[in-house]
Design a protein that fits this description.
Helices cover 56% and strands 9% of the residues.
């Protein structure tokens, strides 16, 4: 990974977690925190128009399952490293898709809500650098193999032994393995890690989620403009019925 990419990921973590604790804070050097202070204002570059194009070199628009004109909109804010999100995609989404998304009754809009760890940030970036056709299959691969690539304890050991840059490179390498399983090349991965617009996009999506819907955990689902308190199928069915009235 290039030095520029390491600096970018450090800056991104700083923006996400200033004032917080944990390993991610430990990955920040004092100079990086000063840089983050100048970057607190996230550029307004993120479009959430589902019909927008990906001319920026990544998927800079909402990804949708189902008919885009379906009467009920379900927005899902998910983090790739979130175990509850993996559960939702593996155990709830298939039935939701069968009953509502495939039948034109509702559409699901997927939005990233990045967590403050390098694994999540890199995995989120790489899903956004997949092709449009491969986006949801790439997301599924990350969720299906989450326990294989989310090696937080191992990254902590690398950090203690070899320092911050080595720990970030370790996280990047583990995440890249899954991207390659999903069809991305080494060059695809490198270019994605260096894509500042993609990083800005992820930050803006998170900022909008917090400001508009009060999102503070994942998965968070918004049905018909209203945040639901649970992500089980029964709760979602009730919310969809209410939104369809």
């Amino acid at each position: 990974m290039t030095k520029r990419a390491i600096k970018k990921i450090t800056l991104l973590l700083a923006i996400l977690i200033i004032g917080a604790g944990g390993l991610a804070i430990a990955l920040l050097a004092p100079a990086d925190r000063l840089i983050a202070a100048d970057a607190a204002a996230v550029p307004e570059t993120a479009s959430q128009d589902v019909s927008a194009g990906g001319e920026a070199g990544f998927l800079d628009y909402d990804m949708v399952i189902g008919d885009r004109d379906a009467p009920v909109e379900i927005i899902e804010y998910a983090a790739i490293s979130c175990s509850h999100c993996a559960h939702f995609h593996q155990d709830v989404l298939p039935e939701l898709k069968k009953k509502y998304l495939d039948t034109g009754k509702a559409r699901l809009v997927y939005r990233n809500f990045i967590f403050d760890n390098p694994f999540d940030v890199y995995a989120s970036l790489l899903t956004r650098c997949a092709t449009r056709e491969n986006f949801f299959s790439t997301v599924k691969t990350y969720f299906d193999y989450q326990k294989a690539w989310l090696k937080v304890a191992e990254m902590q050991q690398v950090y203690q032994a070899d320092g911050r840059d080595a720990a970030i490179i370790f996280a990047q390498a583990e995440v890249a393995k899954i991207a390659k399983m999903a069809g991305m090349s080494d060059e695809d991965v490198r270019q994605c890690y260096d894509n500042q617009q993609a990083i800005n996009y992820l930050l803006q999506i998170r900022k909008t989620a917090v400001e508009t819907y009060g999102v503070n955990s994942t998965p968070t689902l918004i049905v018909g403009g209203k945040k639901v308190e649970s992500n089980d199928l029964v709760t979602l069915e009730k919310a969809i019925a209410e939104a369809g009235k």
